[in-house]
Structure prediction request, 285 residues.
Amino acid sequence: MRARLPVIVVTMLAMAGCGGNKVRGDGPPSGSSRIPDLPGDAVPKPEPRSKYGNGPVYEVLGKRYTVMNSAKGYRERGVASWYGTKFHGNLTSNRETYDMYAMTAAHKTLPLPTYVHVRNLRNNKSVVVRVNDRGPFVNNRIIDLSYAAALRLDMVSDGTSLVEVTAINFDEPARDRPVRATVAGSATATGVDGAGTPRRGGASTITSNLVYVQVGAFGDRANAERRLATLSDAGIEKAFIHEERTPQRTLHRVRIGPVDDVIQYDILVEELENIGITDPYLITE
Prediction:
């Protein structure tokens, strides 16, 4: 009878692997001086939809989430977090055992399982992970990565990072699917030392991007200037108009930045919501 209910109420205890409340610095088991060699990307393959964790609607902390019918066409930019020892060995939402050294992730609404390509917008490092869990149930977070995946993206020290997440569609030829920017099958290749700590020098061979928040694209410059004035009136700084010229037209894109880190991005998103702008988009250069 419970399976027929339109809403499945899920508590944080029942979804212990969801990574809703991570502890900063949550990493290798206490006393461990090394971690196993980091795995390569998850290998995408068609899999049946799990009977567990797929809703279609569930509730956590008083908020309802609707699971997507399909991951096809999903692409989103936002904040990634990660989870480690606190959930290692617990059951994930689809009743698998969470392994912090595997290439997996948690997502609030993608079908379980789904394979996704995750790219760190700051350094262009990227991985492919298998989504088998629910979370993160924290405002302004779009994906929760395993500890191993976070190490591969060089985001463990910061705890969070600005990323792009793209679902892998098996209807597309393999050559058209997202590919990683770097080959990083080992700790050394990903800028991580033997103890699992990101090496300061490891990012030197990786492209460093500037990240901006775009809050509108207008054909009429006057409209772009009005948006710019709205931002200025709200006390939002570092906003400007970027002109994109093509033979057909000129677009006036209103951008803010560069954004230095996730904390600054979170504050900016809240400020934008306060003035009714709810669809900011991350841009890299």
